[in-house]
Amino acid sequence: MDIVRCMQAFVATVQAGSMSAAAAELGQSPALVGQQIAALEERLGTRLLNRTTRRQSLTDFGTSYVEQCRDILDRIALAEEAAELQQTRARGRLRITAPTTFGVEALMPALGGYRQAAPDVELDITLSDRNVDLVEEGFDIAFRIGQMQDNSLIARPLTPYRMVVCAAPQYLSCRGTPIDPDDLNDHETIAFTPSARSPWKFAGANEEKVVTPKRMITVNSGQAACAAARAGLGIIMQPEILVRADIETGGLIQLFPEWRLGERPMWLLYQRDRRMTRRLRSFISFATAAFSAQ
């Protein structure tokens, strides 16, 4: 039995809330995670988790033991980081989280440059549109869009997230092309679910307009919203990086180019007390160069 891996499986299960979620995080099968925890319980001679078909909870001993496991795993990580500092090349595992659209359209295509510079770094990337807790969920670094609200993290500014409004040529030929943002009230729109109720704010040369257009379709995927727009189902407001290729090929037509939509700030986040290993330093240098604020 590899006791370190068993401890990792136990801690991951507690943090993730289930063995299946821990298995996905660790890149293992749920059965293997269950076997590792069972082996740990057999070695200790006591149960760590109370399990039912619907939920799991820590036993009294499990509550204290998980903190000891975290301390042990942190000490192992510190020892590995100390060894890494003696090496000339960045190596080891780096856990990264990023918003889904940014991750698919911008981060993943840019990673080739980082892989060439740091081929020995293992990248574990999670794409999610929720604000993950770096400390609780064990991430080294995060890309985040929006206003910063956590002063406990170091935040490096990146290029702001720019939004554009567009529609397919067939939709515009059928329903007409809106000339002014106020015209959106007479059009069908496709909204990204997390921001479906948010008004669309436009800034012109001398005025601002706030429009809450009629929404016929809401969907929880930016890529799906773009697909619906390409099919002529309505007008979308999406990140410029997501629709850039469609606009360049004519699959979508940008509307109101003379109006600016509110740009959303974007940040690279990492823990303030995080030891600056070579792998972390190398990724920060890559990310700030690739996506730095202009």
Q: Could you tell me the mean pLDDT? A: 87
Low-confidence stretches: none
> Would you report the number of β strands?
15
Strand composition percent: 25-35%
Give the H and E element order.
Answer: HHHEEHEHEHEEEHEEEEHEHEEEH
The biggest beta sheet is recorded as: 5 strands, mixed
Strand order of the largest sheet: 4-3-5-15-6
- Residue share in helices? 40-55%
> Structural class of the secondary elements?
alpha/beta
CATH architecture of the largest domain: 3-Layer(aba) Sandwich
Question: For this structure, what is the CATH class of the largest domain?
Answer: Alpha Beta
Describe the fold and architecture:
It contains 10 helices and 15 strands. It has a 5-stranded mixed β-sheet, covered by helices on one side. It is elongated and about 70 Å long. It is 42% helix and 25% strand. The chain has helices spanning 3-16, 19-26, 30-44, 60-85, 100-117, 134-137, 169-175, 222-230, 240-249, 278-290, and strands at residues 49-51, 56-58, 92-98, 121-127, 141-145, 153-161, 163-167, 189-192, 200-203, 208-211, 215-219, 235-239, 253-255, 260-261, 264-271. It has 294 residues and is α/β, with parallel strands linked by helices. It starts with a helix and ends with a helix. It folds into 3 domains: 3-85, Winged helix-like DNA-binding domain superfamily/Winged helix DNA-binding domain (Arc Repressor Mutant, subunit A, Orthogonal Bundle), CATH 1.10.10; 92-156 and 265-290, Periplasmic binding protein-like II (D-Maltodextrin-Binding Protein, domain 2); 163-261, D-Maltodextrin-Binding Protein, domain 2 (3-Layer(aba) Sandwich), CATH 3.40.190.290.
